[in-house]
Amino acid sequence: MISKEPFGNLPSGESVEQYTLKNAKGMIVKIITYGGIVTQVHAPDRAGKFADVTLGFGTLKQYTDGHPYFGCITGRVAGRITGGKFKLDGKDYSLVTNNGPNHLHGGLVGFDKRIWKATTSEDQSGSHLKLTYTSADGEEGYPGTLKVAVTYTLNDSNEFICEYEATTDKATPVCLTNHAYWNLAGEGSGRIDDHVLQIFSDEICPAGVEMTLKDVKQKVAGTPEDFREPKRVGDAIPKLWGNHGDNYFIRSTANQLHPVAKLTDPKSGRSMSISSTEPCLQFYSGKFLDPTKWIGKAGVPYVEHAALCLECQGYPNGVNHPELGDIILRPGQTYRQKTVHAFSIA
């Protein structure tokens, strides 16, 4: 089932709608056309009680006032491009450096701050919200006119699916993801220390000062970054570089769905298994959440580590180091990726 309601207007006067996807089991996902932001995800616990398990706001103004990418589509390149610079087909490009010395999540006005056009459909495979946006040649410094489509699906197996497509008229880097913050105990319930996380990866790309990627692969064995076996998040965070999290290279088969991560809240029993066609996962611990800045939907401030992100994507700095993951899309090609969030009871 799909429904639509107004979610407010931007200062420019543009209207923003919120779409609600609901399945036969009562699970609900809500998305707004501003940034393609996933504002709510309601999932059941072992007693059948539903809670909203993703961070976000109840008003458009809270989003437009600035936020740490809650639930949004990030692009053209999700993650950090070192120095905001790259060379492509012999030409040098400079992007805005909006995160220390690096270019982060598409720049100052990335896909997270754009209005997306929406169409809906329903069939036996679920309820679908398709969002489209055309990014102009030169937008945020990127070459080429990029046509993007993101389809959100909720099915009766309690799977929330994100599918991405893009085409371009000039060679350009493309690396898309959704930046949802997850707390399976319910947003506003406090820190995610007792969550248990498993990541199906043997290697990370370590980061240095300002979270700049070092563009090398490093084995996780014997390090705090080792999540090959399920690990309590609160035990891991103090030992991580900057208490932040890392870019993981997933054990993957190109263009096929493969297991990426599993997150469980032992108290509620809620569990989320992620599979994706993407080769990388950015695990972010919610280190920079600030209760003085962001008050959530339940009226509770979002404290440090009140949620974590598990962002399936390509290698962000692949435009400079294609040996770690080529993210260049060329005319005649179609960028495609699929990520599935499967909710269940542990």
Textual characterization of the structure:
This protein has 346 residues and is mostly beta strands. It has a single domain, classed as Distorted Sandwich (Beta-galactosidase, Chain A, domain 5), CATH 2.70.98.10. It contains two helices and 28 strands. The chain has helices at 60-64, 233-236; strands at 2-9, 15-22, 28-32, 38-44, 50-52, 73-74, 80-81, 85-88, 91-94, 103-104, 117-123, 126-135, 146-154, 159-168, 172-173, 177-178, 181-182, 196-199, 201-205, 218-219, 231-232, 247-250, 258-264, 270-276, 280-284, 308-313, 328-329, 335-345. It has a nine-stranded antiparallel β-sheet. The protein has a six-stranded antiparallel β-sheet with strand order 17-26-25-22-19-20, with no helix packed on it. A hairpin with a 2-residue loop joins strand 8 (85-88) and strand 9. The longest helix is centred in the N-terminal third of the chain and has 5 residues, at 60-64. 47% of the residues are buried.
Main sheet record: 9 strands, antiparallel
Q: Helix count, per DSSP? A: 2
- Range of helix content: under 10%
The averaged pLDDT comes out at 97
Tally of structural domains: 1
First-residue to last-residue Cα separation: 27 Å
The CATH architecture would be Distorted Sandwich
Strand content: 35-45%
Low-confidence stretches: none
Strand and helix layout:
Blueprint: E1 2-9, E2 15-22, E3 28-32, E4 38-44, E5 50-52, H1 60-64, E6 73-74, E7 80-81, E8 85-88, E9 91-94, E10 103-104, E11 117-123, E12 126-135, E13 146-154, E14 159-168, E15 172-173, E16 177-178, E17 181-182, E18 196-199, E19 201-205, E20 218-219, E21 231-232, H2 233-236, E22 247-250, E23 258-264, E24 270-276, E25 280-284, E26 308-313, E27 328-329, E28 335-345
Antiparallel strand pairs: 1-2, 2-3, 3-4, 4-5, 6-16, 7-10, 8-9, 11-12, 12-13, 13-14, 14-28, 15-27, 17-26, 18-21, 18-23, 19-20, 19-22, 22-25, 23-24, 24-28, 25-26
